[in-house]
Amino acid sequence: MPGDDIRNRVHSLREQLERWNHEYYILDSPTVPDQEYDGALRELQTLEEAHPELRDASSPTQRVGAAPLSAFSSVEHPMPMLSLDNAFSDEELAAFLKRVVDRLDVDSVPELVAEPKLDGIAVSLIYREGLLERAATRGDGTYGEDITLNVRTIRSVPLKLRGASCPALVEIRGEIFMPRAGFEAFNEHARRHGEKPFVNPRNAAAGSLRQLDSKITARRPLEFCAYASGQHPEEGWPGSHWDVLQLFASWGVPISRYAERLSGLDDCIDYFHRLGDERDALSFDIDGIVYKVNDFAAQRELGFVARAPRWSIARKFPAQEAVTKVTGVEFQVGRTGAITPVARLEPVFVGGVTVSNATLHNMDEIARLNLHHGDSVVVRRAGDVIPQVVSVIAERREESSAPIDAPPSCPVCQSPVERVAGEATLRCTGGLVCAAQLKAAVRHFASRRAMDIDGLGEKIVEQLVDRGLVRDVADLFKLEQGALLSLERMGEKSAAKLLAAIDASRQTTLPRFIFALGVREVGEATALALANHFGTLEALSGADLDDLLEVPDVGPVVAEHVHGFFRADANLGVLRRLLEAGIAWPAVAVAPEVGGALDGQVWVVSGKLESQSRDEAEAALRALGARTAKSVSGKTTVLLAGPGAGSKLSKAESLGVEVISEAEFLTRLEAAAP
Known about the structure:
Elements: H1 4-26, H2 34-50, E1 74-76, E2 86-87, H3 90-104, E3 112-118, E4 121-128, E5 131-137, E6 143-145, H4 148-151, E7 169-177, H5 180-192, H6 201-209, H7 214-218, E8 223-229, H8 241-250, E9 260-262, H9 265-278, E10 286-293, H10 296-302, E11 304-305, E12 308-309, E13 312-316, E14 321-333, E15 338-350, E16 353-359, H11 363-369, E17 376-380, E18 388-392, E19 417-419, E20 426-428, H12 435-446, H13 458-466, H14 481-485, H15 492-504, H16 510-516, H17 524-534, H18 537-541, H19 545-549, H20 556-565, H21 569-580, E21 602-606, H22 614-623, E22 627-629, E23 638-641, H23 647-655, E24 658-660, H24 662-672
Parallel strand pairs: 2-13, 21-22, 21-23, 23-24
Antiparallel strand pairs: 1-6, 3-9, 3-10, 4-5, 4-7, 7-8, 10-13, 11-12, 14-15, 14-17, 15-16, 15-20, 17-18, 19-20
Pfam family, one: HHH_2
Catalytic activity: NAD(+) + (deoxyribonucleotide)n-3'-hydroxyl + 5'-phospho-(deoxyribonucleotide)m = (deoxyribonucleotide)n+m + AMP + beta-nicotinamide D-nucleotide
Protein name: DNA ligase
């Protein structure tokens, strides 16, 4: 028998892990890093394995999954799970509210509660004595499938309700969904491993919940949000939907932080448009707004019609998926030679815009879709994601339609294409011989965060390359006014300004110059790390693979690309000519071994700042030892989010990354200053 010390430690670990879950999923304020959480969970697993008699169904360790099922069993819901009627316009919503007023025989619209309609899977959770007893899908509304083992793996679903006020039996209904960041990461992993990606987050959530092996579900990034009660005790139960949501939150059950109480049609329309404007920036998909009469007595008086309540309605957003036809496929060549297939479409209105093309990612994706010329396809546009073809309607395909084949050569320069083992991307082997790669390389070299050559836009680059005036980026520094005046729409004033901008760019910094070279996988943060580590271009160009792997966050792939770039004769020739053209930078002090107050932290800056530019904020952070990155990931410590942070804010919220305002950022800078 285990001693009291072990029992107490097990009890303490369980309480600690549940508290951290609550802070992460309910309060949106995590207090410990993932590493500490994982360490506590492993310790608890070890203790429970050594002392099986201490195992408990409500333990956080039970989220890892159980033995696979042979099939899901059917269960009956204590109360039917009804569907909702829909409104597709302000007029239809107004008609619903008028019916509510007329049936209640009142003078004005009663108080309503509005919540975003999550695009996921409706489920019923039954808690007995505060412990999760059963989870079931909605099914046909009367019978659903028992998915208890799978739901137990979802960390935002409490295995045990918090507080002492939990009833003996209560049913909590809500939505299980997959956040956008998790969906994109899952599909990217699937593509890299030759697996079939999901069409959209809703399908991903449904497919994850219906896994017979709950260990698979445990690896999927699912979340839960409660929106209603089902079976519950009559005595002492709240009298309104809003109060029930607050009760759920006090038990540690996730509810929508976007829920609001409204008082009439104008409020409802305003809420609909406010959420519609925020829709693309949310970390999860929504397809509309649900309005409910708040008071339960009024709900009972209104009753039901067919299989829907008279006291609730869903106002739907415009669809983010549409059906159209593929009119052709073009293969575009990027700066690194990557060849990306793009579908040309019959224009279709989807997600609030007219779409006429969509990415196909790579040839593996075309094979997965089994895409043929002229196919009818489903196109999806969600958030700030580029429109993409998600499925083919094969039954509409014409018999004579031919499949889409990979190009045997580069569509721009006709050089052979290659596919590196382990990669899904086709690449042109032409290098700077390829006009498409050269144009992209010149645009990158001149971009604001690289050499910052103002006025060297896409149209001018096109002409410079097409006319043979620029054969590599070093040729930019040989341009003369006469050559520029030969370009379309280029006057003397514009030519003089461009030459002045090219001349000014000769004075730069080593990190900017390294970034401008366009080495594969070397972004701004990596360029900065390389500059700080080696101090000079000579040291960097002479570094071997082992030297490169000593640079923070430079892994084997990046090291290979950097090493290979500085071993290519053509690249060395361009570098020599750039330096001969007078490009120079101040000496770089090699970064010391010990950092500042923010040493070891990774920051991302996004949105508009009032007190300074984003570049200045990043420089201030780096001066205090922090590392700055351009995208949010699981390694991000803090996101500084100004207005317009958009998808980075959504991803940070979904990953549990700390998000701070500009005011808090300035406070921390002052506190961290030496």
